[in-house]
Design brief:
Blueprint: H1 3-14, H2 20-30, H3 35-39, H4 52-67, H5 75-88, H6 105-123, E1 138-141, E2 154-156, E3 161-166, E4 169-174, E5 179-185, E6 193-198, E7 204-209, E8 214-218, E9 223-228, E10 236-242, E11 245-250, E12 254-259, E13 266-271, E14 277-282, E15 288-293, E16 298-302, E17 311-313, E18 320-325, E19 332-337, E20 343-348, E21 353-359, E22 364-369, E23 375-380, E24 387-391, E25 396-401, E26 408-413, E27 420-424, E28 428-432
Length: 460
C-alpha cells in the first residue's frame, strides 16, 4: 500500500463516522439559548433608540465639508462650529444604536425618590393588634336580678358609678373607690324596679317602677327629689336622658318626654307602638330618639317633629330592645332583634335606610359602640349566652367572650369607654376590658366591691 493510501486510510479512520444529523444535533443541544444574540453575525439597530435627524446630519456632514473645501473657514469659525456641534450633538461618532438609551437623570431621580418613599412606607411599623381578653376581669354576685328581656336594670354614669337594680333595691357601686351602697328600696306594691338611667351630670338617677311611676334621686345625698306619675298605665321598662328631658317607655306602648324642671313634666307623648316599649335611646346630638318595641317595630322620632315619627322601620321580626347610636358617625343607629329575629341591623336615621344586616344566630339583648375604635359589642341570649365583638362596617367577628351561663340581658360602658359591665340571668355581674386599656397611668383601676356587702357580694 502506498504512503498516500496509508495517509488517506488513517485520515478516514480518524474522521467522525457518526451521521451528520447526530453531529449537528449534539452541537445544537450544547449551544446556549442566547448565543445567537451574543455570537451572531447580524447586529440589528434599535430604531426606537436612535435620533434619525442626528444620524442623517452625521452621515451627510463629510460630504458638505468636501463641497465647502474650496472656501477655508477662519480658525475662530472652525472652533465655534466644532464647539456648537459638540454641545448640540453629544457622542457624535455614534450613528447606530443597538439598545435602548438609559432614562435621563431626572427620571432616575424621580424613580429613586418613589422607590425610597415606597421603602419607607413598607418599613413603617404597623399598629399592633390589640389583645382582647377572653375572660372577665372580675365577677360580682348580683342576686335577685330580674330575668326579664324587656327591662333595663344596669347603667354606668359619667361620675364612674354603676347603678344596678336587684329586685326592689337599687345599688350603687363606685368603680373608682370600690365602695358599694344601697340607694333605695321601693315599697312592695311599687316594685320591682324595672329600669335605671343616669342623668348626664352623673349625679341624678331615674328609677322606673313596676307600678308606672318614675322616681328621681340625688345620689350624692341619697334623697328622692320627685316622683313622675300619670304618664303610663303600667311598668316603665325603658329610660333615656337628653339634657333635662327624660324620656320613658312603658308597657302601654307610649313614649313620653318629661321636663324634670317643671311641675307639668309630661311635655310630649309619642304614639306609634302597639305593644311594650323595651328599647329607648337618644342620639348624641339630641336630635333623634330611637324607640324599639315588642311589636317588632323601630321608630325614629325627631325632636322638632311632634305629631308623628320621622321613620317607622319594620325590618326586624321580633322584639327590638337593643339600641345604640354611633359615637363617631352622625345618624348611625344599630339595633338588635329578639329570639325570633337574631339580627343586628345598622340604619341611617336621616333617610331611614337599612345599611347592613347580620344574623348573629342568637337573641340580641344589648349593644354598645366602642368610643375608641370602629367596633360594636353585642350581648346575646340562647344558646351561647356570649358577648360578641364586631368590626364595623364589615361586621366581621373579632372575638366571642363567654362565661355567663344565662342570657346576657344588660350592658353598660364605663365613662372612659374601655370597660364594659354585663349582667345576666345567672345572677352575676362581669367586667370586661373588651375595648382596650387606658393609655395614661393616671386612670385609677376598678376596685372590687366589699366581700361582705349584703346583696352585692364579690365572688371572684
Amino acid at each position: 500500500m502506498s504512503s498516500v493510501e496509508k495517509m488517506s486510510g488513517n485520515n478516514r479512520d480518524s474522521l467522525d463516522r457518526r451521521p451528520l444529523e447526530e453531529v449537528l444535533g449534539s452541537k445544537l443541544r450544547t449551544r446556549p439559548q442566547n448565543s445567537s444574540r451574543q455570537c451572531g453575525d447580524r447586529f440589528i439597530p434599535d430604531r426606537s433608540a436612535m435620533d434619525m435627524d442626528t444620524a442623517y446630519y452625521l452621515l451627510t456632514e463629510t460630504k458638505k465639508e468636501k463641497e465647502n473645501a474650496s472656501s477655508v473657514p477662519s480658525p475662530s469659525k472652525e472652533a465655534y462650529r466644532r464647539q456648537l456641534a459638540d454641545t448640540l450633538i453629544p457622542n457624535r461618532t455614534r450613528i447606530l444604536a443597538f439598545k435602548s438609551k438609559p432614562p435621563p437623570s431626572c427620571q432616575l431621580s424621580e424613580q429613586s425618590q418613589l422607590s425610597s418613599q415606597l421603602a419607607g412606607q413598607l418599613a413603617k411599623p404597623t399598629k399592633p393588634r390589640r389583645h382582647i381578653p377572653q375572660s372577665a376581669e372580675r365577677t360580682l354576685d348580683a342576686p335577685d336580678i330580674v330575668d326579664d328581656y324587656y327591662l333595663n336594670l344596669l347603667d354606668w354614669g359619667s361620675a364612674n358609678v354603676l347603678a344596678i337594680a336587684l329586685g326592689p333595691t337599687v345599688y350603687l357601686w363606685d368603680a373608682t373607690e370600690g365602695a358599694t351602697s344601697e340607694l333605695a328600696t321601693c315599697e312592695e306594691d311599687a316594685g320591682p324596679v324595672t329600669s335605671v338611667s343616669w342623668a348626664p351630670d352623673g349625679r341624678h338617677l331615674a328609677v322606673g317602677l313596676n307600678n308606672s311611676e318614675v322616681q328621681l334621686w340625688d345620689t350624692s345625698s341619697s334623697r328622692m327629689l320627685r316622683t313622675l306619675r300619670g304618664a303610663h298605665q303600667g311598668r316603665v321598662g325603658a329610660l333615656s336622658w337628653n339634657g333635662h328631658v327624660l324620656s320613658t317607655g312603658g308597657v302601654d306602648g307610649l313614649v313620653v318626654n318629661h321636663d324634670v324642671r317643671v311641675r307639668a313634666h309630661a311635655i310630649r307623648t309619642h304614639r306609634g307602638h302597639q305593644q311594650e316599649v323595651c328599647g329607648l335611646k337618644w342620639s348624641p346630638s339630641g336630635q333623634h330618639l330611637a324607640s324599639g318595641g315588642n311589636d317588632n317595630l323601630l321608630h325614629i322620632w325627631d325632636q322638632q317633629q311632634a305629631d308623628t315619627w320621622l321613620h317607622q322601620l319594620d325590618g326586624h321580626v321580633a322584639a327590638v330592645k337593643a339600641l345604640a347610636w354611633s359615637p363617631f358617625q352622625s345618624g348611625l343607629l344599630a339595633s338588635g332583634g329578639g329570639g325570633g329575629d337574631r339580627c343586628i341591623k345598622t340604619w341611617n336615621a336621616h333617610t331611614g335606610a337599612c345599611l347592613n344586616s347580620v344574623d348573629t344566630g342568637s337573641q340580641v339583648c344589648a349593644l354598645q359602640w366602642s368610643r375608641h375604635e370602629r367596633e360594636l359589642l353585642s350581648s346575646h341570649g340562647f344558646t351561647n349566652n356570649q358577648l360578641t365583638l364586631w368590626k364595623y362596617p364589615s361586621m366581621v367577628k373579632m372575638a366571642e367572650l363567654t362565661g355567663h351561663t344565662s342570657r346576657v340581658l344588660f350592658l353598660a360602658q364605663s365613662p372612659d369607654g374601655y370597660t364594659v359591665a354585663s349582667a345576666a340571668g345567672d345572677e352575676t355581674l362581669r367586667f370586661w376590658n373588651v375595648f382596650g386599656t387606658p393609655e395614661t397611668a393616671a386612670q385609677k383601676p376598678i376596685k372590687a366591691a366589699p366581700a361582705a356587702f349584703s346583696g352585692f357580694n364579690h365572688i371572684r
